[in-house]
Amino acid sequence: MGTSSSKPSTEKFDPKNDLVDLKGKVVIVTGGNKGIGYTTVAALLHANAKVYLAARNEERAKAAIESLHDAGLGKGGEHSLGEVVWLKLDLGDPREAKKAAEEFLKLETRLDLLLNNAGDMYGDGAVGSDGVSSMHIVNYISPYVFTRTLLPLLKQTAAEPNSDVRIVNVRSSHLSLFQLIYQLTPSPRRYISMMKVSSKVHTWLPTGVQYAQLSDFNIKYNWRPFAKYLRYGNSKLAIILWSRHLQSQLLTSNVPITVLSLHPGVVDTASHTLPFPSLMKWLFSFATIPPEEGALTSLFAAASKKVKEDPEKYREGVYLTGEPEPGTVGLPSGDALDARLGEELVGTTERFLESIGV
Question: Is 313 a residue of the active site?
Answer without folding.
Answer: no
